[in-house]
Amino acid sequence: MDQRKRVLILTPGNLRQNHFYIREHLDFFPPDCFGPAKLAGHDPERSLEILLDGLNEVITTDIGTDKRTGKPRAFFRGRTWVRRFFQHHNVNAGDRLALECLGSRRYRLSVERATGGSSLPAVAEFFAGVGLVRLALERQGWRVVFANDIDPNKAEMYRQNWPNDLHLMFRRHPGAWGRRGQVSGLAALLGCGRHAPR
C-alpha cells in the first residue's frame, strides 16, 4: 500500500453525514494521534494538520476513540470542515478523495473525480419501506438508483429520510426502472407486513 497517498471512495452516507471513512487506513497516521472520546481531553501536541485543497485552509484534528471500547473511530473528529470541503468541491458519491502525507503530522486532502459515471455498485430497492435496507447498503458502498413501495405512509417516510432523491416510485408495479441506470444488484425487504408470504 502507498505510504505517501491513500485513496478513499465517497459513499452517499458519507455525503449525508459529512465524514469519510479512514478505518482501513489507520496505519497511515501516527499512533499517538488517536485522542480520547471527548475533545476536552485531547492533547493539541498530538493533532494532525490537514491542508484542504481548493480552500487553502489548514485544519487541525485528530481521530477520536470509542468511549466504550477505546478503539479508534472510523473518521476524523469534527464534521464542519468536511462539510465545507464537500460543498466547495461539489462532490458526489463515487468521487475519490486523495489523502497525501506531506510530513509526520501534515496531510493534504484533495478530490479525484470518478470518470465514466459512479464507481459504486447500483441497486434497486423493492418494498423499500422507510429505507432501512438502503441505509445498510449505502454504509457498505452501494448506490440506490431506484426504490419502490405501495404503502403511501412508508413512501412518505422514505421521502422524508431522503428528501433530495427523486427515484422513489409509488405504485404497485414499477415500470421501466432500468432506465435509471444499469443495476448490478437487487435488494428486496421480504417477510414483513402484508408483503410476507402466506
End-to-end separation in angstroms reads 52 Å
Indicate the low-confidence ranges by residue numbers.
173-198
Tally of strands: 9
Shape annotation:
elongated
Q: Helix and strand succession?
A: EHEEHEEEHEHEE
Q: What integer is the average pLDDT?
A: 77
Q: Which range does the strand content fall in?
A: 15-25%
Report the total helices.
Answer: 4
Report the CATH superfamily of the largest domain.
DNA-binding pseudobarrel domain
What's the level 1 CATH class of the largest domain? Answer: Mainly Beta
Radius of gyration: 20 Å
The CATH architecture classification of the largest domain is: Beta Barrel
CATH topology of the largest domain: At1g16640 B3 domain
The major sheet is characterized as: 5 strands, mixed
Helices, strands, pairings?
Elements lengths: L4 E5 L2 H6 L30 E5 L4 E5 L18 H10 L6 E6 L4 E7 L9 E5 L5 H8 L3 E6 L3 H10 L6 E2 L15 E4 L10
Parallel strand pairs: 2-5, 6-7, 6-9, 7-8
Antiparallel strand pairs: 1-4, 2-3, 4-5
Summarize it:
The protein has 198 residues and is α/β, with parallel strands linked by helices. Helix content is 17%, strand content 23%. The chain contains 4 helices and 9 strands.
Features:
2 domains, 5-stranded mixed β-sheet, disordered C terminus, 4-stranded parallel β-sheet, 4 helices, 17% helix, alpha/beta, 9 strands, 198 residues, elongated, single chain, Rossmann fold, At1g16640 B3 domain
